Amino acid sequence: MRSTIRLDQASVSSATDFEWPVESPQTTHFSVVDKDRNAVSLTYTLEYGYGSAIVVPGAGFLLNNEMGDFNAGPGLTNANGLIGTPANLAEPGKRMLSSMSPTIVTRDGELFMVTGTPGGRTIINTVLQTLLNVIDHGMNAQAAVDAGRIHHQWLPDRFYFEKQTFSPDSIRLLEKLGHIAVEREGQGSAQVIVVNTDNMSLEGGQDRRHTDSTAAGY
Ligand code: DON
Q1: pLDDT tens per residue across span 188-199
Q2: Does 78 reside within a domain?
Q3: In this structure, which residue's CA is closest to atom 6 in ligand 1?
Q4: Is 24 a domain residue?
């Protein structure tokens, strides 16, 4: 915004011409590797926009709203995906369950891959699929991020797939096996760095499902 300010001319205030960079109100993930191959994988969340809407006085940051990740009540497991395990009952001193999975992979003690994503309960599957795409299927970082994603979390008993991940024929075959297949737009926003072991360079994969995603090298 500062770069748009001109000292020699007043700017025009216009209600119809207002640009603001697109920014997701949701969970954020960063993957970082420095020149010495130190790595950071960081997923942080307010849950949704403004979290609990409480700013820490004097510190200036918002508190998150993760209480919804505790069980709503003892034994409350339902078909919509609430899992009522005793371990996740809200009690003082406890930390609620979380799917957040910031991940660093090493090979023979050396850094190989950094990955992570937002996406609530889908996080674990998205992270796993980026790992499988690189480690088992030999994809580079960007191909691993671009590849279609799937998600099943036991309850609800649904198999979610991203648009164009499967042919209609494959979906029919899965349905024949008894799967309830549900198409969805995008799953997660994975940010991936892979060490290319041929030349030891770093590959960055940005999630093109979201416009506020980026990969950069310095
Ligand atoms: O801790 C968890 O697993 C969730 N509360 C994370 C929330 C999240 O990813 C929401 N955004 N997409």
Answers
A1: 999 999 999 999
A2: yes
A3: 120
A4: no
